[in-house]
Each structure stands twice: as C-alpha cells, then as structure tokens.
Task: structure prediction
Amino acid sequence: MTRPHETARPACPADEAEWARAAAAGDKASFARLVEKHKATVFGLCYRLVGTSEEARDAAQEAFVRAYTSIRDFDSRQPFGAWVLRIARNHCIDLLRRRRPTLALVSESRGEETESGVAPEPADLFALGGEQAVQESEAQRDLDAAIASLPPRYREVIALFHVQHKSYAEIASALNVPMGTVMTWLHRARKELKSKLAEHLS
Amino acid sequence: MSATVHLSEEQIQGLADGTLRGPEGLAASDHVDVCAECAAELSMYAALVQRLMTLSDPPPPPDFTSDVLLAVEKREHVLLQRRHTLLAAIPAAAVGIFAILGWALSAAPSVHVDRFLEIWTVGRHVVSAVIPVLEAARLPIALGAFAFCAAVIFLLARALRVFPQPAPASS
Result:
C-alpha cells in the first residue's frame, strides 16, 4: 500500500476551507458537509480511544459540536480534518482521565457487534469457516485487546496510521506533535504489540 | 552493511510497513537477505503490520450528521441563553456600581469611616447579645436554613432549566 510521507504539513483542501468559512458565517449545510467528510475518521479515533461504539458516538458528536462553536477560530490554511481530530482527541483524553482504564475493546471487538449487542456463538464461526475461522477470530480479539491495553497516545497513532491510513505528517498535524514524535510512538506501539502478540506472529 | 551489525528496530519496522525507502531501504533489504536474525525480526513485524492492516473501525451511525446538527442547535440555544443572562447582568452591575459610587461620593470619606465604625460597634453589641439565643435555638435554625436553601435551589433550578426546542416538522 502506498502512503504519502511528505514532510510538509498538509494544507486545507479548497472546498473544505470554503465550507468552513460558510459554516463560520452560520451555514449549517456547509458544516454538515464537513461532518459527512470527516465523521468516519473522527468516530474511528474516538472508538479506538474510548473503546465502545456508544461512547465513541457521543465523543465524536461532542467534538463536532465544539468544532462548530469555535469554527471562527479555525485557521482555514490548516486541514479541517486534523483540527477536528485534535478536538476529538483532547475530548477523549479528558474522558479517559475522568474514568478508570477500560478494556472494553476486548469484549466489543471488530465484527462481533450485533443489533442486540450480543456476540455470535462459537457455532456460528464454525459454520462460517471451521477451526480456522475460530483461530482468526481469537487472533483478532487478541489484537484488539492488545491495542486497547496500549497507552492512549500509542492507540492514537496505531489507529491513525494503520486503520485510517494517514501519513506521518497528517498524524503530526492532528496530534499537534512533531513528526519524529509520531514515528517514535508508532515504533514503540508496534514493539509493545509485537511482544504481546508474539504467540500469534511467530 | 555487515551481517554482524544488525538493523535497528526502527529500520526493521520501516521495512515491514514500507516506509524505509531509497538507498537505506535497499541496504537494509540486502542485509536481511544475509542475516537470519534480522530476517526473523522482519518476519514478525511484517506479520504484525499485516494484522494491523486488517483492522477496521465500526462505521458511525447512519443518522450521525443529523444528530450532530441537532446537538449544535441545542448548544447554540444554551449559549444564547447564557449571553442573554450576561447581557442582563451588565446593566444590573452598572447600577450597583453607580449606587456604591454615589453613596461613597455623597459625603467626605471621614464621615463614611465614622459611620462604618459606629455600625461595627453596634453590630458587635447586637451579635454578643444574639449569640446565646442562636446557640440555644441552633437546631431549629439549621433546619429552617436547610429548608430555605432547598426551596431557593429548587426554584432556581426550575427557572434556569433549558427546555428543548421543538423539532422542525418534517415535510
């Protein structure tokens, strides 16, 4: 997979800058376009940080509301996505500080959610693909658990780099840290994951 | 690069995720070809990166954007109410300051000081006379104060409650 690794900070796309200016003037339709464009990224980061879909929805919603109420302070030369990610991240960090650490991702791992919130029975997995499917599912659950046990800043970079496929520059802009810091966090995060998941990786 | 000098963990991770490019990347690849230890490390990291690449987050709810817009409207309403409260407080504060200044400038400062000392002395006498009575009736007074505060807080909470705006009728 190719990924841009430019060293310069990314700029705001022209359409986003225009929508942000219109939103600052009170145009909610333009703000809705910005929300539509960035909701998946913001929701994804919140999900990786707070651990459950329900809390991620609330956190992402609050991030966008805060973005709207302070959109007059937004510098349209910077990317809107990075700005709103920064707001979301700060809000999630506040939420995490207010509560005890949770490993909710362990129980709410990818692909296990159903309408009722109940995980599928192992029998379903056998029906889908036998023992290999069960092993895959266990490995996936272990991966989610290992990520959930990382410190928040490591979870952020893992989510933004590997799940959202952002470049180092974009992540640095979103987290408001130098690119070198992003690379260091990513290396350390993967090192921790490697030691936690050695059994599955060897 | 010599096979005895191993690659750093960062270089191996860079090879695994494809971010180590150019001459350094080529040299690192050449080294991995002849170094079993680094090759084993690379294989672990490559497997990890592959697993990480399969990660995906659940999608946001379908009505997420409309919920955000509703929340924005509610927040705007609250902010507007706060602004109105502040706007009402400014003239009240101005009147208060005007009254205090008017009182202070109505006579020479020494007159105010004398009057203040007089009030202070009278107050001390009153307090020393009232304290034994208050001590005797401590419990009923505390209960009365609690009931009074509870009533005031209840009334304030009702008065300051933000009522949700009715949702616009759908066409």
